[in-house]
Structures are given as structure tokens and as C-alpha cells.
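task queued by scheduler; priority normal; single chain, no ligands, no partner chains; default sampling; output format set to C-alpha cells
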Amino acid sequence: MARIARVTINWTGFIGAPGFTNLHFAPAAGPDITQGVVDDAVAKVHTWIQAWDAGLPNTVTVTIDPTVEEIEDSTGELSAFWTTVPGSANVGNGSGPYSAASGAVVNWYTGGIRNGRRVRGRSFMVPLGSNALDATGSLNNTELTVWRTATGVLIANVDDAKLCVWSRPSAPAATDGISYDVTGYTIPDMTAVLRSRRD
């Protein structure tokens, strides 16, 4: 049993919007979620999202919800709300046509094992602008390098909050949910298609 903080990133300005990305954080020290933990988590997410701006279409706006949810990882039950002051909205810089359903995927890795499988997560960064792609249809190497660097910093920075993957309870009334610290990541050099805006 542990308490974790859920930071929600909101995506607007494209066909299929709105969408959202959830990132979860655990306290770096001690079991309790505090204002310091929440503020640190939101600041880290804002910095990370800024690294993606150049690759997002200029119609897309990405904002961090000022309300952070505290949840019990074993049950998924909401324990508390925290209020923060996120940084300003991020607006994409890319121009030209783009696909509203395709972009990049970040794979999050942990050292946890559940039901015989390694616990991992995914975050879809969709949509990306045409400037984020190269002539072969894969991701632009310049942008990819920026994203990978920012993602490595997000994982390594554990001042008050540390990024984690939440493995949800197996059933509505179950208490077998658990969270694990993120220990690594990959951003494959290929486009990813988002089938649901709730992924």
C-alpha cells in the first residue's frame, strides 16, 4: 500500500480532442504525499512537456491540470486533492499538415514484476507535427534527441517526487494494485498510432 500523486496533462486543439496523459509520482522520501511532492512533480512535468513543443502542431495546446489527485495504489481509491500552480500552457511550434492520430510513444520501464511479467507503462505523445518526422516517415533525429534527453532528466530528478508506473487493481473491488519506480525508458524511432484519446 502506498500513496501516489496523479498529474494530468490535457491536450486540446485537434480532431479527437480533448485528450489527456496521466503521470504518477511517489514521494522520494517517506510515505506521505505533501505539497512539496506535488509541486515538484508538476514542475518536472512542465519542464518535460516543454521539450516537446517544437514537435507539436501549432494548433495544439498542452496544459497541466492544477488539481493533482492523491490515490491509494492498492485500491485506486482517491484519498485527497492537491492544488498547484502549473507553468504556462505549452503551444506547439510545428506548421503544416499533420495526422491527429499519430505521434510518438514513451515506454516506461520498472524493476517490478507482477503475475510473471515486468511492470511497464506507456505515454503517447500525439499528435506530432510534420516537422517532427523525417523523409522516411520515422521521427526527426534532432527532435528525438531532445525528447530522449528531457525524458532521462525527468527520471533521474528525484528531489521530492519520483516518477512511477501504477499497476492498477485486477478488479473493481480488488486490493492488489501496486506502483513501481521508473528505472528506464525508450522512445522508439518510429511513429505510434493512438487508437483512443484516453490511452
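post-processing summary
- The two ends are 25 Å apart (CA to CA).
- The mean pLDDT is 95.
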